[in-house]
Amino acid sequence: MKGEAPYYKASGKEIEVFEHSYKKKIPFLLKGPTGTGKSRFIEFMSYELDKKLITISCHEETSSTDLIGRFIIKGAETVWVDGPLTTSVKEGAIIYLDEIAEARPDVIVAIHSLTDHRRELFIDKLGQTIKAHEDFMLVASFNPGYQRGFKELKPSTRQRFVAMSFDYPEAKVEAEILVNETDIEHDIAKKLVNIAGKIRNLTELGLTETVSTRLLVDAAKLIHSGLPKRLSVQVAVVEPLSDDLEITLALKDLCDLMI
Ligand code: ADP
């Protein structure tokens, strides 16, 4: 049975675009920095479409074997175990490859035949090719590498997807998200959003990633739980952003003034 719908506040036409992409089963790429609601959006869409969602958080060790499956030894036998990609392809689930560019290159090779007209998966270890269930859809996210430390996604891979950019929501929407997610007072939500706006504009700090909606949600949760506001902002917003003492002190002073 369907549980409660995940809360997702749309910023643009993403719901409409996703619905149509799903109808035509075109792979979908969500671009954007961490904590901007990409995962929440996919949870929401799979709920709306009433499809099972299988999420894989890719990292540098994620290989095609992890996704497709492997033989394991069970007693005196070796048995084949489907990986999450194979399961999704067979059962007709939506698979979400979060941070796909982090995965090993063989993952990209493995999804190729699933992302074009063939819609099939080749399981090399079994010598089998399986046709995707008609409900199967591949979704991936990618953090564009405009700053240090992020991996790129090759144009030949990107062109296999419909893509949409996700960014921090506008102030009014972000405050609404905070209130909805944490039950915090609207006035405090607005102050948190103002702090985020200020820090996001401080490009001279050279932060690898700036304040995400996720960090604000965490700060709001701590405040709602009864932790003092300044301390909440310090531990949920300032400290996760940087380890540079000068920067964290400067940010803490700024935040103390604004909350
Ligand atoms: P990403 O996948 O982009 O890293 P998430 O989807 O995990 O980000 O979002 C982080 C948190 O921020 C969510 O758990 C949710 O609390 C909040 N959030 C961000 N954007 C939205 C949105 N548009 N609607 C609802 N919640 C959001």
Protein model, in words:
The chain is of the alpha/beta class. The chain folds into two domains: 14-165, P-loop containing nucleotide triphosphate hydrolases (Rossmann fold, 3-Layer(aba) Sandwich); 171-258. The chain has helices at 14-24, 38-49, 64-68, 84-91, 105-111, 155-158, 171-182, 186-201, 213-225, 229-241, 245-258; strands at 28-31, 53-57, 69-74, 77-82, 94-98, 120-123, 128-131, 137-142, 162-165. α7 crosses α9 (213-225). Bound molecules: adenosine-5'-diphosphate (ADP). The site of adenosine-5'-diphosphate (ADP) has 16 residues, from α2, α7 and α9.
Per CATH, what is the topology of the largest domain?
Rossmann fold
Work out the radius of gyration. 21 Å
The end-to-end span amounts to 43 Å
Count of separate structural domains: 2
Kindly state the number of beta strands.
9
DSSP strand (E) fraction?
15-25%
Question: Describe the biggest sheet?
Answer: 5 strands, parallel
- CATH-scheme architecture of the largest domain: 3-Layer(aba) Sandwich
Coarse shape:
elongated
Task: Spell out the helices and strands N to C.
Answer: HEHEHEEHEHEEEHEHHHHH
Mean pLDDT: 94
Please work out how many helical segments DSSP would assign: 11
Low-confidence stretches: none
Q: Structural class, please? A: alpha/beta
CATH H-level superfamily of the largest domain:
P-loop containing nucleotide triphosphate hydrolases
Helix fraction by DSSP (H/I, runs of at least 4): 40-55%
**Which cofactors or ions or other ligands sit in this model?**
adenosine-5'-diphosphate
CATH class of the largest domain: Alpha Beta
